[in-house]
Amino acid sequence: MYDSGKIIPGLIIFVLIVTFPIWFNHGVAADPPKAELPKDKKQCVLPLSEIRPNHMKTLNQWRDEVLRTEDRSFFSVEGTMYQKSLQNACMQCHVSKKKFCDVCHTYAAVTPYCWDCHLEPVEEATKEDVN
Ligand code: HEC
Ligand code: HEC
Ligand code: HEC
Fold first, then answer.
1. What is the largest CA-CA distance in the chain?
2. Radius of gyration of the chain (CA)
3. Which ligand 1 atom is nearest residue 43's CA?
4. Which residue CA neighbors atom 40 of ligand 2 most closely?
5. How many angstroms separate the CA atoms of 13 and 113, rounded?
6. I want to staple 83 with a disulfide (CB 3.0 to 4.6 A). Which of 34, 88, 103, 115 is the partner?
């Protein structure tokens, strides 16, 4: 008869070693990066459930309204007036392109070409940039 007292624990250890990469990485590899939200604001121009998936459509809609019908109307968020504008609305609250837009876009592998023409906010230099 074989010695089940050694074979069974041996098998368990073998399975744990072989599957180590699977359970060790679980939940780590799949976590998307966190975009830095505005510290002094609570609301976006649309509810979170709409702006998150549809912000590119909002931008296109604003651009069309501004350029095709010259509708440059202002609107209010939490009592402050904003223009329909990438630079003068979105980037007034989302003050860092690098820590907000880029974080998600790099992860999702999209590179909007908007910044070829539109100005991005001047980024505050951090220690990492200087060194
Ligand atoms: C008045 C300030 C303000 C303006 C203007 C603004 N946002 Fe926001 N945005 C916020 C805040 C605050 C949040 C977080 C909202 C929340 O947690 O409910 C947010 C959330 C978002 C999110 C979701 C982020 C995430 O982690 O899921 C996206 C995408 C976004 N904004 C893009 C834009 C774009 C594009 C524009 C211009 C069309 C814009 N925002 C204009 C304040 C603003
Ligand atoms: C919460 C994550 C997230 C944040 C924050 C975010 N985006 Fe996006 N954005 C995406 C994703 C994901 C896509 C691709 C969606 C698709 O292909 O359907 C995208 C696509 C776009 C597109 C269309 C690009 C194309 O080639 O189709 C534009 C324009 C855009 N984002 C602008 C912005 C701007 C401006 C900001 C910062 C103010 C921003 N986004 C912040 C996730 C984000
Ligand atoms: C080839 C240059 C160019 C590119 C690329 C470009 N734009 Fe524009 N955009 C303009 C010009 C010029 C205006 C008109 C500015 C004005 O009259 O205020 C404008 C106006 C806009 C406006 C309305 C006014 C404002 O100040 O924001 C929005 C919104 C806009 N663009 C969004 C986008 C988005 C989103 C992208 C990327 C998907 C993009 N644009 C790419 C040149 C460009």
1. 89
2. 24
3. 12
4. 101
5. 52
6. 88
User: What's the pLDDT band for 98 if we cut at 50, 70, 90?
Assistant: very high
Structure tokens at 48: 């979170």
Give the span between the Cα atoms of 13 and 120, in whole angstroms.
54
Say how far apart CA 42 and CA 70 lie, in whole Å.
29
Q: d(Cα 62, Cα 41) in Å, to the nearest integer?
A: 21
Q: What is the pLDDT of residues 24-66, one digit of tens each?
A: 555 555 677 899 999 999 999 999 999 999 999 999 999 999 9
Distance 101 CA to ligand 2 centre (A): 7
Residue labelled with tokens 């098998």: 11
Residue corresponding to tokens 């023409």: 117
d(CA 57, CA 91): 16
Structure tokens at 87: 């630079």
Contact 72, 84 (CB under 8 A): yes
45 CA → ligand 2 middle, Å:
15
The Cβ-side half-sphere exposure at 99, using a 13 Å CA radius, reads 14
Distance CA 47, CA 27 (A): 28
